[in-house]
Specification:
single chain, 249 residues, alpha/beta, two-stranded antiparallel ribbon, 37% helix, globular
């Protein structure tokens, strides 16, 4: 898995500081694309799994979303004072044991770069699917697997193909806090698609957002990074129709 709870709890404040920078790719690319795909959120309830400090969820509630819940293992939440926004310290790998969401359903469930932390990805997605209201969907983002393939190939002196199909975990220092090492579980595009299918979900929409031309000229170092590592994938996932659910594992 990409991290364990204790390192992430230590890393979370550094991540939030990096995310708030003017040249953050989350600010420039990821969140604008995610927000555009969500569209009008008036009266829409959200469950944000791996919500970080809760800032994105707060923005959605301020834009008119209905009562919503954010869950993050770090517990490093912003202060907001809103009755329609609840931020809960809990593990997204154990959603069935979170009392704050028991018996509830949500119109939109988000995994914004948090899905890789699930101990059992299929089980976590199945539980999330069970929390969807009718006509609800899951918005899930993941780093392009090509990025990790390039990093592994460069570190090991192998080809891109060998890096892409490698199955051994990949440990590296991150740019948020050099004292903490993250270990990433490798995955391919087929791994992602098969996980969605096994969880009883299908992909309605996939996006690969890029820097705008203006932002690429303004932040050439970020454009160079995107040119090399490609960025992220955004999936809009819907439950398979009744009778077409994937068989239990």
């Amino acid at each position: 898995m990409e991290s364990v709870s204790e390192p992430w709890s230590r890393l979370a404040p550094d991540y939030e500081r990096a995310r708030s920078r003017e040249d953050s790719l989350d600010r420039l690319v990821e969140w604008p694309a995610q927000r555009a795909l969500l569209g009008d959120v008036s009266g829409v309830s959200f469950l944000d799994l791996g919500c970080g400090n809760g800032g994105k969820l707060l923005e959605l509630v301020e834009d008119g979303a209905a009562a919503s819940v954010g869950i993050d293992i770090s517990g490093n939440f912003i202060r907001h004072g809103r009755a329609d926004l609840e931020l809960v310290q809990a593990d997204l790998s154990h959603l069935a044991s979170v009392p704050e969401i028991e018996g509830r359903t949500f119109d939109r469930i988000m995994f914004l770069q948090s899905f890789g932390y699930a101990v059992d990805p299929v089980r976590t997605l199945r539980t999330a699917r069970s929390l969807l209201s009718p006509d609800g969907y899951i918005l899930l983002t993941r780093t392009q697997p090509i990025r990790y393939a390039i990093e592994r190939a460069e570190a090991n002196g192998t080809s891109l193909g060998e890096g892409y199909f490698a199955r051994d975990p990949h440990a590296h220092r991150n740019g948020w806090n050099e004292e903490i090492t993250l270990t990433k579980r490798p995955y391919t595009m087929s791994d992602l698609l098969n996980t969605f299918s096994a969880a009883g979900l299908w992909v309605e929409t996939t996006l690969e957002p890029q820097l705008s031309e203006a932002d690429g000229e303004r932040y050439p170092h970020k454009q160079a990074w995107m040119d090399k590592y490609l960025g992220i994938l955004i999936f809009k996932l819907l439950p398979l129709p009744t009778g077409a659910q994937a068989p239990a594992a």
